[in-house]
């Protein structure tokens, strides 16, 4: 099995109460691939400029990520700059420079169209659609989005939502898209468009899932310090979908396991800046923390 | 076993996106007693004015709550007025009239001093201390507090915290008291003062507990509509401490069960205004929802 991911490869400048990093490796496709490659084979589609330090992606190649879909175009790499205050659940975007991303039209290399699983990271829903059309063998598709597209490209976004199996958004975005304060109502409205599963990210509170069986919840791992929340959602999605792809089947049981693995992987991501923690993460450490989740969530019989 | 609770009996005026109620039954001691009496015997200590409709408390008496510690004093009953917007986690207090509560000094009736368990609801820490001194047989004490006392009576509050076994606050209050954004650090600072257990309320996200074994988390029950969050924390405490009192022992296992029962009971509370849902709640319905919690939190082995 393998996963195709399309998203951004970026140079991030991030400031949090714990420090600041300047033009470090980031981007939704990178965080996703770093997480998913702990479980399965990943094929990455994205674009960078000629200024991008390609050696930064060597750790992905070493984990078997196929980077032949990474275009290097004349110009500068996509840059994002953001700040988090003590409320680490709120992102303050300071600057976004699309650069080479502005004219990006993803083209899948020959072998990529065979991927069975597809993750459409948070990019223009038109680009998401272009990729979905090219990925002919896909049997399981998950997509992310954000407030920018919900407000500016609502119709395109809805067309895309109708075409996927799993939608993930953070809770504020889901409420915005569905036009209701109730997460249950909002999730149902998305499911009525077609997706079987809605995964709602809640930052430091974890995540909840609505599938065809009902409701499922997973907390975040308790960390003394969350150093940098950047990439939490994308690495959650990578752990979640990477595991489902590796299992080869989507059942109530594998979906629940995938939710916990998503939260486990994200907990490593946010414990350091940029990709620092994900670079060194191993399946053994993931399994170890998974066991901790079993312990601190256990509802004893009464 | 029995629980002694001291707190407020109030007339609440509450407005939420789902409606408005005027001078209805409320108060921390009432919510706590309604919840705890599902599990054990409750003795209530509080004060009301001569304007208070005592028949409103008949349902507590029918559940075995001993109201002989309820003083009726000349004057008006404590009144609280608040509003919740779509963000139901934030309370906007519109008006607080202490009335007879202003000169309240709790006096325990003869039989009350024999209670083994004590809940000091969110009142002036000086009054909490007066009650703690009178309750000579108590073996387990839990206390709540709020930002008003953290800011205005910090030393008195700290003296009180040193004297109890279990502290509960909401997460903003705990962070304020401990002077740190990290819940783990904040909980440790409280535990260093003496309490073995810290229960942190997170509203729609549930609650977390730090005990001597470590960390435990319980989500909130998914409700399509939260009609009125008033009393959620006090009824959580009632379910939690009521169960512990009934068990007669505080172990890692009973603490975890108590956390879930707290969340179960609170989920009923917020589904209707005032005490409407708690009035009709039965142990059988609590057990039924407890089983649902087991299901939607289960972390499957991997």
Compact summary:
The first copy, chain A, has eleven helices and 13 strands.
Structure description:
Two copies of one chain form a homodimer. With 302 residues, chain A is of the alpha/beta class. Chain A has a single domain (2-297), classed as UDP-N-acetylmuramoyl-L-alanine:D-glutamate ligase (3-Layer(aba) Sandwich), CATH 3.40.1190.20. Chain A is built from eleven helices and 13 strands. Chain A has helices spanning 28-36, 58-62, 125-134, 147-152, 154-161, 171-178, 183-192, 232-247, 252-269, 276-280, 283-297; strands at residues 2-6, 10-16, 19-26, 41-49, 66-73, 79-84, 91-97, 117-120, 140-144, 166-170, 197-201, 207-211, 214-218. Chain A has a nine-stranded mixed β-sheet, sandwiched between helices. A four-stranded mixed β-sheet of chain A has the order 3-2-6-7. In chain A, α1 crosses α8, α3 packs parallel to α5 and α6 (171-178) crosses α7 (183-192). The mean pLDDT of chain A is 96. Chain A binds chain B through residues 17, 86, 181-185, 202, 205-206, 208, 214-219, 222-225, 253, 256-257, 260-261, 287, 290, 293-294, 296-302, and chain B through 17, 86, 181-185, 202, 205-206, 208, 214-219, 222-225, 253, 256-257, 260-261, 287, 290, 293-294, 296-302.
